[in-house]
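Intended use. Records such as the glucan endo-1,3-beta-D-glucosidase entry shown here are meant for training and evaluating sequence-to-structure methods. They are not intended to support clinical decisions.
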Amino acid sequence: MARRLMLALPVLLFLLLVGQCHGGKIGVCYGRNADDLPAPDKVAQLIQQQSIKYVRIYDTNIDVIKAFANTGVELMVGVPNSDLLAFAQYQSNVDTWLKNSILPYYPDTMITYITVGAEVTESPTNVSALVVPAMRNVHTALKKAGLHKKITISSTHSLGILSRSFPPSAGAFNSSYAYFLKPMLQFLVENQAPFMVDLYPYYAYQNSRSNVSLNYALFSPESQDVIDPNTGLVYTNMFDAQVDSIFFALMALNFKTLKIMITESGWPNKGAVKETGATPDNAQTYNTNLIRHVVNDSGTPAKPGEEIDVYIFSLFNENRKPGIESERNWGLFFPDKSSIYSLDWTGRGNVDVMTGANITSANGTWCIASTNASETDLQNALNWACGPGNVDCSAIQPSQPCYQPDTLASHASYAFNSYYQQNGANVVACDFGGAGIRTTKDPSKSPILFYCYSVMIIMMLCMVS
């Protein structure tokens, strides 16, 4: 009877959890700096055919906004840097803009975000001081229209807003931007808006090949892990390292609760002679792995399992963009709407749904508590894993599925293995000052842990549904 109950519980839990499945969102950037692109209505059809639900545009072009009416696609629109002065100076300018560019088309067109300024610290003219006043005026205009809780306001940034990004734990904002950055971060907190940043591992690889391998930039399993010497966190890809450098920079300013959203990331499909990494194959590999990383809620070493929304750059090649060859070749599609390379937007292609912190192992090894470790050492290591190690230890709390057996060794083994698997099953990640030991025996085979691991399987299935 007890065995039948144990077998039935995961099924019941699945029925309870199936309606709560969620995951990070994947969108696409629709840039239009080209003279050969299809009409906006044709683009909207293409996006629907690809089952893309989230699109970013860089202005409030009326034809584009109208094209997405009644499509079910959520739109992120932008206030260009060239409009910041007018938006910051007079509330009436913003009120008129909202009346003419947003209200006539909302909610038929599902506008969910407004970005006020784009990578202002990279702008040739110094418009940084205008960002927060402009954001406040946009918020006031939305509030007058009763939309301030339906449309979220933020501003996008490049990684250049940091003065230091390596190791990730040393991430720090450039102090020269403090005059506008701190008020902006406070605005984001007050309005529950994300910190938006554009991240490009391609440039990290292209500009520093001696330090950044192509495998590391592309999420390849063959890449050599990078260990943050300050935290011991193990990084298997450049994207996670860049995201965490932003997180640690925010934490240093006491804004650690801010959600991070990646408003641009991608890989060029073509480049100049010296840009050997810019190929369709590499672009396909990067974007495929990025999508998989996001929809599986892999999180980052500093924030494992946390949802992160990402917009792929870009929908089309843009032939009017200045700069080197790769600048014009980030597209997923040619202007005739044919694919440059195939891309699985679901993130499910060839994904092992059983992979997880405490379900299976990437390399056939697990990390458990050493029988030679003292209770003091185990407790200290457990406290570190569930604290600075950022392991989600909620499952081993009283009344939770992995609380039993209620022993220090069992709880420590759960936390150790979570940390170990989340950090690439690296030898260093199972040290815990000698309290951890690697094993090739799957701990989930223990009957007493069947219930716990069944729940974890359900949770992982939920992540990819």
